[in-house]
Amino acid sequence: GKGKPGVCPFVRPVLCFAYEPPECQSDWECPERKKCCQGLCGIKCTDPV
């Protein structure tokens, strides 16, 4: 399925000691214009760039 418009911000790979549980599985689970994006240490609802 298609997500919301916009692209996820680029995330530099970092060494995570603990991965957080994902906040979302699709853009539609995120409020407003946020997208479901890979964050530094887990998947989060993130403002698109």
UniProtKB/TrEMBL annotation:
Gene Ontology CC: extracellular region
Domain annotation WAP: ranges: 1-49
Gene Ontology MF term list: peptidase inhibitor activity
Name of a matching Pfam family: WAP
InterPro entries: Elafin-like_sf, WAP_dom
PROSITE patterns, sorted: WAP
Domain of life: Eukaryota
Signal peptide location: none
Protein name, per record: Antileukoproteinase
Organism: Bos mutus (wild yak)
